[in-house]
């Protein structure tokens, strides 16, 4: 049995057309990873962050090498098991996770913290890729749409209860992208917008009420404080973003240099807390300047483009949804992270993909890249 299994794997590996491996995506990815590793090393005086990030890159590389060779159709066979695993992880962290400042999002294993919601993003993309492919001929029927909404609502609810609003927004955006790619009717899209616009107005009105229970108070403060700066709460909330803006602006064209000891550095003055995570783009701007920030933006854009390109040339709908779903996660997270650092959006905790410190985000996205690269290997026959 083992021999037959190994023979089957060997035949599958031989069937891949390796000329379709996306070398460009690999180059852009590792260029961004190396840049991020150097910026993390400069952002903090603790060597442990750099060491853990390097460890994550090594483990993530192994994951890419394994997943690039596993036919994604084989992974899709276990889509309900993948969905169940997602729910188990999100439920487990609710009961056994570490509580930090009122949020229970992490498992702690010694010096390493794992955040299940980061892995849930990629697992849900794979699950819905198969589910939407399976029902592609009945996609816009009420019964199938209800199935999509219900299976999405359960993990969304669990993530919201952690609470983790930023991750919830990411998976909502990703779900919308996957529904569009899957073939959602334009009539339904128009209907959703017709309902969503007045719904948003109502929610905003309710949030302005003193006894609202829709969101946590700190979340409301972040949103309202961003637009109303003439109060003490807003001043405290916006302190980090204001310093971030000053730091990026002071970097000029070429920046102040990595690992510098200049007295005029915002980072060196400890005005940016946890700079290696959500505000890593601030360090890029201050120490590598306009050239550094544009390098990050261009590399992220190129990675997203390659994901969408491979999605456009995927052999089936499932492959297309996987590539576009993961590309949407990377693009949206990067956009929000950069906008927060430049004070264009309210402060929210989203890492900059492949640049911010964080093993969960790094490993989950690198695993996603492995699956995307496997889809790329199975290029449309007509384009061979």
Characterization of this structure:
Strands 1-2-3 form a three-stranded antiparallel β-sheet, covered by helices on one side. Helix 10 (217-227) packs across helix 11 (232-250). The protein has 384 residues and is mainly alpha-helical. Strand 1 and strand 2 form a beta hairpin. It has 14 helices and three strands. Helix content is 69%, strand content 3%. The chain has one domain.
Assess the beta-strand content as a share of residues: under 5%
Radius of gyration: 22 Å
**What is the arithmetic mean of pLDDT?**
86
What is the topology, as strand order, of the major beta sheet?
A: 1-2-3
Uncertain ranges? none
State the end-to-end CA separation: 34 Å
Which secondary-structure class do the elements indicate?
mainly alpha
Could you spell the SSE succession in H and E letters? HHHHHEEEHHHHHHHHH
Helix content: 55-70%
The count of β-strands is 3
- Number of helical elements: 14
The number of distinct structural domains comes to: 1
Principal-axis shape equals globular
Task: State the major sheet.
Answer: 3 strands, antiparallel
Short structural description:
This protein is 69% helix and 3% strand.
How are the elements arranged and paired?
Layout lengths: L1 H14 L7 H21 L3 H21 L4 H5 L2 H18 L1 E3 L2 E7 L2 E3 L1 H19 L7 H19 L4 H18 L3 H22 L9 H11 L4 H19 L29 H33 L4 H25 L17 H19 L7
Question: Which structural traits does this protein have?
Answer:
mainly alpha; 69% helix; 3% strand; globular
């Amino acid at each position: 049995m083992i021999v037959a299994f190994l023979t089957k794997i060997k035949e599958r590996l031989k069937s891949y057309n390796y000329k379709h491996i996306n070398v460009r995506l690999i180059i852009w990815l590792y260029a961004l990873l190396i840049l991020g590793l150097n910026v993390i090393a400069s952002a903090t005086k603790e060597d442990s962050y750099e060491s853990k990030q390097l460890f994550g890159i090594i483990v993530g590389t192994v994951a890419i090498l394994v997943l690039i060779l596993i036919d994604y159709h084989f992974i899709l066979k276990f889509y309900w098991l993948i969905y169940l695993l997602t729910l188990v992880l999100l439920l487990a962290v609710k009961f056994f996770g570490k509580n930090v400042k009122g949020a229970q999002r992490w498992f702690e294993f010694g010096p390493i913290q794992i955040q299940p919601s980061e892995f849930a993003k990629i697992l849900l993309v794979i699950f819905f890729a198969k589910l939407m492919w399976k029902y592609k001929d009945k996609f816009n029927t009420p019964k199938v749409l209800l199935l999509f909404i219900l299976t999405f609502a359960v993990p969304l609810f669990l993530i919201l209860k952690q609470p983790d609003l930023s991750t919830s927004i990411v998976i909502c955006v990703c779900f919308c992208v996957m529904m569009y790619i899957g073939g959602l009717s334009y009539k339904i899209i128009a209907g959703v917008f017709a309902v969503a616009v007045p719904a948003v107005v109502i929610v905003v009105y309710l949030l302005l009420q003193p006894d609202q229970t829709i969101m946590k108070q700190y979340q409301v403060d972040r949103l309202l404080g961003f637009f109303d700066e003439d109060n003490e709460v807003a001043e405290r909330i916006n302190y980090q973003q204001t310093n971030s803006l000053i730091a990026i602006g002071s970097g000029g064209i070429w920046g102040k240099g990595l690992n510098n000891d200049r007295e005029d550095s915002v980072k060196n003055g400890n005005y940016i807390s946890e700079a290696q995570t959500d505000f890593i783009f601030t360090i890029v701007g201050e120490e590598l300047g306009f050239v550094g920030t544009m390098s990050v933006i261009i590399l992220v854009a190129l990675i997203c483009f390659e994901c969408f390109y491979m999605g456009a040339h995927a052999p089936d709908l499932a492959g297309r949804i996987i590539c576009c779903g993961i590309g949407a996660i990377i693009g949206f997270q990067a956009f929000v992270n950069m906008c927060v650092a430049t004070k264009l959006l309210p402060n929210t905790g989203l890492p900059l993909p492949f640049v911010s410190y964080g093993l969960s985000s790094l490993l989950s996205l690198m695993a996603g890249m492995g699956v995307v690269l496997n889809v790329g290997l199975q290029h449309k026959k007509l384009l061979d």
